[in-house]
Amino acid sequence: MAIMGFLAVANAYTMRVCLNIAITQMVRRRAHSLAHDHGSCPGDLEETAGDATEISGYDWDEETQGIILSAFYYGYIVTHLPGGMLAERFGGKYSLGFGVLSTAVFTLFTPWTVATGGATGLIILRVLEGLGEGTTFPALNAMLARWAPVSERGRMGSLVFGGAQIGNIAGTYLSGLVIKETGEWQSVFYLFGAVGILWFILWAILCYNDPESHPYISDKEKKYLEEALGRHQNSQPSAIPWKAIFMSVPLWALVCAQIGHDYGYFTMVTDLPKYMTGVLKFDIHRTGTLAALPYAVMWLSSIVFGWLCDNMVKRNWLTVTNARKTFTTIASVGPGICMILASYSGCNTETVVILFTASMGLMGAFYPGMKVNALDLSSNYAGTIMAIVNGIGAITGIIAPYLVGLLTPDSTLVQWRLVFWITLAVFILTNLVFVAWASGDEQWWNRPAQDNKKQQEIEIPTTNSINTDIRL
């Protein structure tokens, strides 16, 4: 389940990010991007400046490109909550499966849509892709709540959610390679759309909502999971306690951390290829290769951080709450500082790539930090909690690309420096909120209604007894 969940996220991200590379070849390059003006670097593109306009001919300015890249997230945030609720009620297998399948089909139609509908058609299609992918994390969170014991959540969560980095690696590296070899940007959409459909077929055959419904699980593993998860989990959750959830301070602290993470992450994912082609002047193959490197390091670091976090909790070196806060802080402050240093490294490409790679590597600590915190707060409503947290955080996916497009009309170092300062400020402010009010403890509203009722029946006589003693 963990491996197929990992591949689900990886496929979702390849289909999401391949446009970030392809768009650099879809648009007509402007003359100022090839000039040695203030804040621009000489590089690979100068050697091919003569054929730059022959590669593609769509006349989309930076603002239009920002709208296209952010369009995905308009649909993405809409299906988070319905996807989470459906996953809790009926299981996450098909809530996740059909979401990824629909995204794969839309990905296959991308070249045709661009040819017939231009920028407007592509924007609409990206919104539809976002609608399909919005169920991914809520459904996976609901399934992890039924498959991952507390002592294994750091590692399983890091493995599954770390699929995002493999998706980014494949989406960026293979996109650059395939476009270079075929000479056509359309090929990447055919490749990743087909792989997404293949994943769905395997998912439908191999994976199930919970251990009870899995026909191939061993009795030993099934018994272990029942004992490990039985204390925290109700097989049929009662009505969702909306008021208690929205009044929960730890939940809103988690939302703040998610906003900070997503803003920095989406800034890197959607716009790092544009920085490499627009500022550092890398060619498409070099951009694909070097843009993939930070995500490879982030994936490896997320596994290391996950193992480290679980061991610290097991040995009682850190409480669950302090572990979540510690690793979230590492993943907030470290990447922000590395981004700033990279922006002041000028055209020293080796230093810039090293710093961006270090930035994403430190961001891997988010997975055993705030990314699995929703499971700590509530296992019964994990899908709904992830939908709220991830859905609100995903709004930054709309803001970040569009804001970058507005702030970098000429794609110079000075303009990009402001982008990274804003990212650092968002990282620090949201992390301060998380450190102040986050919790790694199960929340009272996670318990079934009947358990809360029993608890109240126990507490009321005790209170009356105390009052009687005081009167006497």
Structure description:
76% of the residues lie in helices and 0% in strands. The chain is mainly α and 472 residues long. It folds into two domains: 1-29 and 60-210, Growth Hormone, Chain: A (Up-down Bundle); 240-449, Up-down Bundle (Growth Hormone, Chain: A). Helix 6 packs antiparallel against helix 7 and helix 6 (92-108) packs antiparallel against helix 11. The chain is globular, with a radius of gyration of 23 Å. The termini are far apart.
Descriptive tags:
472 residues; mainly alpha; Growth Hormone, Chain: A; 2 domains; 23 helices; globular; transport; MFS
Summarize it.
InterPro entries: MFS, MFS_dom, MFS_Na/Anion_cotransporter, MFS_trans_sf. With 472 residues, the protein is mainly alpha-helical.
Spans where pLDDT lies below 50 across 5 or more residues: 31-37, 45-56, 454-472
| Strand content bin | under 5%
Helix share of residues? over 70%
The top-level CATH class of the largest domain is: Mainly Alpha
Q: Treating each run of at least 4 consecutive H or I residues as one helix, how many helices? A: 23
Shape: globular
Could you describe the largest sheet, including whether it forms a barrel?
A: none
**CATH level 3 topology of the largest domain:** Growth Hormone, Chain: A
Radius of gyration: 23 Å
| Strand element count | 0
**Integer count of domains:** 2
Mean pLDDT: 81
Question: How far apart are the termini?
Answer: 61 Å
Examine the secondary-structure arrangement and name the CATH architecture of the largest domain: Up-down Bundle
